[in-house]
Amino acid sequence: MRMPSSVHPFSFETRIVAVTVALLISMMPGLCIASPPETLSPHVTVVRGAVNGVAIERAGHRLVVYGDPERSWETAELVLFTHSRRDVAWAGRALVENGAEAVVPADEADQFSKVEDFWSGFWDKRFHDYAQQSTRVLTSPLRVGRTVRGGDELGWQDLSVRVLDTPGYTRGSVSYFVKVDGQEYGFVGDLIYGDGRLMDLYSLQDAVPEARIGGYHGYAGRIGDLIASLKKVAEQKPDILVPARGPVIRDPAAAIDRLIRRLQAVYENYLSISAGRWYFHDQYDVLASRALGGDVKVPWMPYAATIEKTPPDWIVPIQNSRLIVARDGSAFLVDCGSREIIDELAKLKNQGRIASIDGLFITHYHDDHTEKINEFLSAHPCPVYVTPIMEDVTRHPGSYRLPAMTANPIDRLTVVPNGHRMSWKEFTLTFYDFPGQTLYHDAMLVERDAGGKIFFIGDSFTPSGLDDYCLQNRN
Predict the structure, then answer these.
(1) Could you give the residue ranges of the DSSP H alpha helices within 81-238?
(2) In CATH, which superfamily holds the domain spanning 22-292?
(3) What would the pLDDT profile of 47-89 be if each residue is shown by its tens digit?
(4) Domain residues of the chain, as ranges?
(5) 207-230 burial, b if ≥16 CB within 10 A, otherwise e?
(6) Using CA atoms, how far apart are residues 87 and 67, in angstroms rounded to an integer?
(7) Cα(470)–Cα(148) distance, rounded to whole angstroms?
């Protein structure tokens, strides 16, 4: 996601990227087109807009779920919020400011009432961010009347509203269930969208502590929580589900079953071709068990053949960088993310193993590959090569909201077109636009005149599959 540098940090321009899991993020036509109020039963009305608003009327009193997206009701006694994200919670603000009591999940109360704590640090904390939680946080606080968690019951008029903890789409979501007009209603937030869909997968990114997987590596990490919550909702045997967004669901059991099967199919496919298994091994069995069940056997992609011997003598590995060394001692560096790399280069030079460094190539923008490039250039002034897809994100990192982002702009770039070939010493270098782990990713093919080719592809692949653990790398 790129943030134009000339706008306030709360404004975002979203780039929507087509992905193979489009079936989960597809949205029904007319989502943001206001619809006239629809009577679901004599005392329950829904207004469809960018967010659904639900009103339950009893003896001249009104309880609202989610909010009032079309300003259909001036007042309410209670507004029930299922989660704190501002792309839903905004719909209830006017009613709360007009006197309604806001009922919010206890585990997300601070995201309603203490939003300054988030935004005051965001401008700096957005760099080197590995937790990768949603920034759809309210930009001003909303007055909280009471907090609820699973097992609570809210008495209102002659009704009893049951609260169920349903984490998944957010960490602390709740759902509300109430019987009105002989119908069991469920208000489940963004747990489901329509007939077996989900608003997006990006929001599920999170750490998985039981698998010892951190936030950056937790691809759709809350998918197991989401599936467990969907099963809990199904156990309530609701007649009607009204999500925060999307169509009213009149066959909840079928819609929930369809979404669970789709989630599991997508996640099994992801696990089977993920590079994570190369690094985390048995921890991926834990991930599979959480989402797919203990008896499911993931069809893991066979490991690719690997070369166990050391690289040729003209390649020097330095942490996650590689140094290409010519016969005359000239060198060409791939990536520079740490001070230790610069120190090792100085050591190699002092030992006479290299005479100079003639260029640097950046594979991708992540801080462990770019953080120390400017410091490197102070000691070794040389061209820094990227293709056009990498130019803006490296020159203007502050204009983007992406994982593992350096705060250091790199201005001294030599931008070459995709497929550009150049000769350097006894090598031919070919530069490629190579989206892989991220959309902003390059690769370089190095061919030596005496024979030997090496394709430097950054963090795009491992022998077990695609090196992609963080959904936000593609959003």
Answers:
(1) 86-97, 110-113, 115-125, 223-235
(2) Ribonuclease Z/Hydroxyacylglutathione hydrolase-like (3.60.15.10)
(3) 999 999 999 999 999 999 999 999 999 899 999 999 999 999 9
(4) 22-292, 315-474
(5) bbeebebbbbbbbbbbbbbbbbbb
(6) 12
(7) 31
pTM: 0.90
439-471 residue pLDDT tens: 999 999 999 999 999 999 999 888 898 888 899
β-bridge partners, 445: 430, 455
Do 176 and 65 touch, CB atoms closer than 8 A?
A: yes
Q: Do domains 22-292 and 315-474 have the same CATH topology?
A: yes
Phi, psi angles (nearest 5°) of residue 385: -100, 135
Distances (CA, A) of 462 to 222, 305, 474: 24, 10, 18
Q: If you write DSSP's letter for every residue of 30-70 in order, what string do you get?
A: TTTS----EEEETTEEEE-SSS-EEEEEETTEEEEES--TT
**What 3-state class would DSSP assign to 397?**
helix
Q: What is the mean pLDDT of each run of 10 residues along the chain (475 residues)?
A: 44 33 39 75 96 96 97 95 98 97 98 95 92 92 98 97 98 98 98 96 96 94 97 98 97 98 96 91 92 90 83 94 98 98 97 97 98 98 98 96 95 97 98 94 97 94 88 85
Query: What digits encode the pLDDT tens for the residues 308-324?
Result: 678 899 999 999 999 99
* 426-436 burial code (b ≥16 CB/10 A, e <16): ebebbbbbbbb
CATH classification code of 315-474: 3.60.15.10
Q: Which of 48, 46, 47, 73 is nearest to 61 (CA)?
A: 73
Cβ-count burial of 105 within 10 angstroms (0-12 exposed, 13-18 middle, 19+ buried)?
Answer: buried
